[in-house]
Amino acid sequence: MPKTLCLLAALLLAFPVAALTIAEKGQARLVVVLPDAAAGEEKEAAAELDKYLAKVTSATFEMVAEKDLAARPAIYVGATKAAAAAGISADKLDRDGFVIKSVGGNLYLVGNDPAATELAVHYFLQRYGGVRWYIPLEIGEYIPQKPTFTVSDTLNDVQEPDWRSRLWSSVANMDPMWAKRNLCRPRYEFHHNLLNAHNPSEVYDKHPEWFPLIDGKRIPKPPDGAHSWQPCFANREMAQYLGAKIIKYFDEHPTATSYSLGINDVGEGGYCQCADCQALDDKRQPTFRDRPNYSNRVFTMMNRVAEITSQKYPDKLLGCLSYANCEAVPTFAVHPNIIPYLTNDRAQWRDQGFKAVDQKLLRQWAKATRQLGVYDYYYGSGYVIPRFFPAVSAESIKFCHKTGVRAWYAEIYSNWGLDGCKAWLASQLLWDVNQDPKKLVDEYYTNFFGAAKVPMKKYWDRCEQIWMKQPGTAVWFKGFFNLDQLEMFPPRVCDELRGYLDQAQKLADTDLISKRVQLYSDGFRYTELYARVYWGDKAFTQAKVANMKQADALVRELVGYAEASAGLQTHFTKVINADPLLKPVLPFDAQARGTFGNGVLPALSKLADFYEANKVELPDPPCLSKALPADNPVAKMYTAYMTLRQTPDAGTELLPNPGFEAGLTGGKPQGADWKAEGCPPGWSSWIRGGTQGDLRWVKEPVHAGQYAVMITKVSAAACYLTTAPIVTGDVYLCTVYAKGKVAKPEHVQLQVKWRDKENKWFEAAPQAALLPGSELKDWTPLQVMFTAPPGAAQAVIMMVSDKLDPGDVVYFDDCSLKRVNLK
Question: Which terminus of the chain has fewer Cβ atoms in its 10 Å neighbourhood, N or C?
Fold first, then answer.
């Protein structure tokens, strides 16, 4: 060691740094002081400080207003007179900036505004108290014990965030303080808002020309709040109207710093087709990501509005979305008062090609704008698997910041039992981007799991590895609400991960750590059960039944499948849905694409064929009904299927017009966006708003009778549908005959969903049968057999098409729903 460093070390030992004592041996040495006219955020900040100092030190801290303070050392929170007298101010800092300073035996926590003071308190508790809020609620707190708690008496910590705006969507609904405690605070308005700024009820009657021209006609007056349209972006008069409206808004809301002109959430089918709008489009780049490129028209309007509003309010911004059809950079500079948010699913940065494209686009946008935000997708809900990607999360946050991005928004809809520390890690980096993400994650394992750290680290590391090495092309929302996400979790992988969780539970040496491990164990149990059913279902389609041994093996597979299916529902009801940290914000079953049970009917058919060919009496053993409880749904399906094999007429038809024939009476549309025009009696049609589809009632080809239905030219999603009453626990067989030619047969299916007795959509897994091939020259039956789930009062029967290719066409006929009459 050099002599100078040795001398310095000696001096430090001889003259230790003086300390300001906050608590000593569990006794408070300072009092918490509020301004006399404290704002709400300052009151909340002082309460948080009082609460967590007590948890850290085991001391009781008094909290008083400044006017009631006797002459004693204090922690001054917010804009107190004492802070002003000491010359401590954050006025010249960023809006979220704050000062933490010790002077004259007192400690001051002062923010640029009251909300920034709240940030100061939470930063102080983390930086100097060691407190952490890894996940919401008390189970997520890490509280080090410091009966004696000191800081330097010359402390002067001045902080500003690296990212100016930090906002999560539905990150912790069960604990609204979690985001604040992790230093998140939004700043800009940017989301879908054109439908409100340009409200149809206010302007359509006087200015229909401000609305889109589609197929040669101005669209009819849309309802307020509908996302099915975009305005005529070329209309200058509309831009002037918006500019004046926003100026009035700023006049009436002087503290507002921004206003959103985010486009409506609709595809290209909702954009104006007038000549003026088309003239604005970039002829050199007419498409972007295989979608029409409308960036020029959108940002032409944005620039016009910003030019108007900036004349009176040069410091107030217009937020918007660089999203879908306006994701490409326009061919001209964006007005400096506009802040676009560029959307992408950066969890897919696991793919180098995907990452390179996104990074290039970010650089291009950074050059075209004075300020830029990013809009990301960290979803927990929508997945029943751990979607864990801390390395690419950190990489993307650091890259975006280096590129000049300063505003963050991410949809997450957390599922804390499967999300791990990803929201906490990102929140930490949004405040201080220079932190080492590996050290942060290791800290999480150490503090959160204690003696169980090693196996829990192995568990989460393996989850990250699975995500990073997933097969196939990188696409936005890969696996989102799609059962094929379970391809990443075959039985052997589930067994490996379960092993780590079991090890961790054995090592947990406190009740708190045991509860934390159990939280993730319960979350992963959901994955295991889903995977067991998913992989079992796949196995049925490959099963062979040529002898009694194979028949018995298939019965055992069906038994395991049935037990896992029943266990899945029980686990969801009793564990997942009952725990606010596990309950998904967006229920998976109700929106899942792809369904369970597609293999059960073929498996039952194989068994029945074998039993009949070998003259095995039904339902004598070996049969499923003897291996499962009689009320098990799969056992009921087995009995029902065998009954129908023996007695085909043992069923009651429930649909009013199963053959799509004319001259019959039927129910009226039961959904606000269902249409009966041009449909067979008793049936309705539906096309996703703002999209296209050609649905017809035709006379040929037909399977039987005189009519069938046809679906073609579908740009997003469309279907024919009807409803029928059902009874919980009863068994039903739904059949429809299909014919046609489609490029992607998985985009066409017979689907059954549910409604409750109040006619509301019911959250239970839908059932479906997919089109078996690309070209069906002969009429081919699609069948779904199901047991009506608890709470369902109606079955919604749908022939669904999701985004057909040009030239694709599919016909349906003779759709039947039968209740199987069991003894």
Answer: C
Q: Is the pLDDT of residue 576 over 80?
A: yes
Best CA proximity match to 89, nearest among 368, 98, 4 = 98
Which residues, 6 or more positions from 630, have their beta carbon under 8 angstroms from its beta carbon?
A: 636
Strands, E assignment, 344-400? 373-377
Q: Tens digit of pLDDT for each residue in 746-760?
A: 889 999 998 999 988
- 405 and 164 in contact (C-beta within 8 Å)? no
The C-alpha atoms of residue 513 and residue 506 are separated, in whole angstroms, by: 11
Going from the C-alpha of 334 to that of each of 295, 306, 357, the distances in angstroms are 11, 10, 21
pLDDT of residue 729: 84
Torsions phi, psi for 569 (to 5 deg): -65, -40
Question: pLDDT, tens digit, for every residue of 498-557?
Answer: 999 999 999 999 999 999 999 999 999 999 999 999 999 888 888 899 998 898 888 888
For residues 309 and 245, the answer to whether their CB atoms sit within 8 Å is no
Residues facing 340 on adjacent strands: 320
- Displacement of CA 25 from its chain's centroid (Å): 46
Nearest to 341 by CA among 360, 358, 322, 327: 322
d(CA 354, CA 371): 24
E-strand ranges in 496-606 read none
CA distance 613 to 621: 15
Which SS3 state, helix, strand or coil, does residue 145 take?
coil
Q: Which residues does 64 contact at the CB level (< 8 Å), separation at least 6? A: 31, 32, 33, 34
Name which of 699, 810, 681, 661 is nearest 747 in CA terms. 810
Neighbours of 490 (CB within 10 A): 13
Nearest one of 594, 479, 598, 592 to 536, comparing CA atoms: 598
- pTM value is 0.86
Residue 463 CA from chain centroid, whole number: 19
Which pair of tokens denotes residue 89? 């101010």
Which amino acid makes up residue 740?
A: G
What is the distance in angstroms between the CA of the first residue and the CA of the last residue of the chain? Answer: 91
What is the mean predicted confidence (pLDDT) over 632-651?
Answer: 78
CA atoms of 56 and 150, how far apart (whole Å): 12
Phi, psi torsion values for 226, nearest 5 degrees: -80, 140
Mean pLDDT of the residues in the chain? 91
**Neighbouring-strand partners of residue 731:** 787
The helix or strand, by DSSP H or E, that contains position 490, with its residue range, turns out to be: none
Is residue 100 within 8 Å of residue 116, measured between CB atoms? no
Helix (H), strand (E) at residue 687: strand 684-687
Q: What does the pLDDT read at residue 590?
A: 67
CB 151 within 8 Å of CB 102: yes
Cα torsion 452, 458, 463, 468: sign: positive
Tokens representing 62 are 């008094």
The answer to whether the CB of 442 falls within 8 A of the CB of 391 is: no
What is the distance between the alpha carbons of residues 183 and 378, in angstroms, rounded to a whole number?
A: 18
pLDDT of residue 787: 84
Residue that is written with structure tokens 């935000």 in the block: 373
Closest by CA position to 320, among listed 162, 169, 188: 188
Closest CA to 239 of 169, 304, 295: 304
Q: Say how many C-beta atoms besides its own lie within 10 A of residue 220's C-beta.
A: 11
pLDDT digits (tens, 9 = 90+) for 49-91: 999 999 999 999 999 999 999 888 999 999 999 999 999 999 9
Rama region for 645: left / alpha / beta (φ>0; ψ in -120 to 50; rest): alpha
Cis peptide before 701 (omega within 30 of 0): yes
Q: Which of 204-213, 498-507, 596-605 has the lowest mean pLDDT?
A: 596-605
